[in-house]
Design a protein that fits this description.
It is built from ten helices and seven strands. Strands 1, 2, 3, 4, 5, 6 and 7 form a seven-stranded antiparallel beta sheet that branches. A hairpin with a 2-residue loop joins strand 3 and strand 4. It is of the alpha+beta class. 43% of the residues lie in helices and 22% in strands. The protein is elongated. It has two domains: 23-161, Jelly Rolls (Sandwich), CATH 2.60.120; 169-271, Homeodomain-like (Arc Repressor Mutant, subunit A, Orthogonal Bundle), CATH 1.10.10.60. Residues 172-270 form the HTH araC/xylS-type domain. InterPro entries: AraC-bd (IPR003313), AraC_XylS_family_regulators (IPR050204), Homeodomain-like_sf (IPR009057), HTH-like (IPR037923), HTH_AraC (IPR018060), HTH_AraC-typ_CS (IPR018062), Tscrpt_reg_AraC-type_HTH (IPR020449). It holds the Pfam family HTH_18. Keywords: Activator, DNA-binding, Transcription, Transcription regulation.
Length: 273
């Protein structure tokens, strides 16, 4: 018997808080020697980002000196007195002027401190893309400029904090498999095997990351899909149960009511009003 296709679930951002803006202003690619010694007694009017890809520089801030070696990024907030200079007669960097360091703070990037990055090739590519867009000015280049700057900050944040907290990249494939196969009855042991983790480690990390067991997570995906079907289609309860891999419509209805508080038919009626 052919299964009717299940409904994919919608994915949305949670409105926990307003995201701070980060607006690009300008970018300058600098190749400096020892004669390069700018001073800003009143600081920069906007936030500044030094992206050093070769050689070495040094910036003096009220909090102390910060070394700007190859493979580092430093963000300086506005209105902070500073001076900077080339060291050893070779300093190559991009200076990005942008308005509002709120995004950097939101991503917990350090301000006025050195960030060592292994993502410099990607950052250089984004900087060159910024410059190219500003030269030829294709359609939407203003939007693109803001997005390129945000991509740089996201690269830094993901690299810096990717291994912290409850984010486990080794579970990505398992989560994708679950979301793309909501209508199937997946064997958790096979998912665990594909992750390369032991069963104990998989279950522990999965719960830490999602707050649920793998079985409950998969069930919640099926119930979310069922709700979308009840709200947006004329599929019968039996067809929905069949599409989502439940044993039968009675098993589905009992499970749905246990977790939603109402039967599928009552849920459908309420969703229409």
């Amino acid at each position: 018997m052919n299964h009717k296709p299940y409904m994919d679930i919608p994915y949305a951002l949670e409105d926990r808080e307003e995201l701070p803006e980060c607006r690009f202003r300008s970018i300058w690619k600098v190749q400096a020697n020892d004669a390069y010694q700018p001073r800003h007694p009143r600081g920069f009017p906007d936030s500044g980002m030094f992206v050093t890809f070769a050689g070495q520089g040094r910036i003096e801030l009220p909090s102390g000196a910060v070394e700007l070696a190859a493979g580092t990024v430093v963000i300086v907030e506005p209105d902070i007195p500073c001076s900077y200079r080339c060291e050893n007669d070779d300093w190559r960097f991009y200076f990005i002027d942008f308005r509002d360091s709120g995004m950097a703070r939101h991503l917990e990037l350090p301000l006025g401190e050195t960030m060592i990055t292994g993502k410099m090739p990607e950052i250089v590519r984004l900087c060159e893309s910024l410059i190219d867009g500003l030269i030829v000015q294709p359609a939407g280049f203003r939007y693109s400029a803001h997005l390129r700057l945000q991509e740089i900050m996201l690269l830094l944040a993901q690299e810096r904090y990717g291994g912290h907290g409850t984010r486990y990249p080794e579970l990505d494939e398992a989560l994708h498999l679950m979301h793309r196969n909501i209508g199937m009855t997946l064997r958790i042991d096979e998912i665990v095997l594909g992750s390369g983790l032991s069963r104990t480690a998989f279950f522990q990390r999965f719960r830490e990351m999602t707050g649920k067991s793998p079985h409950r997570y998969m069930l919640d995906l099926k119930l979310a899909s069922a709700k979308v079907s009840l709200e947006t289609t004329s599929m019968s309860v039996k067809e929905i149960a069949n599409a989502l891999g439940f044993y039968d419509e009675f098993h589905f209805s009992r499970t749905f009511k246990r977790h939603s508080g109402v039967s599928p038919l009552i849920y459908r009626r309420k969703s229409l009003h």
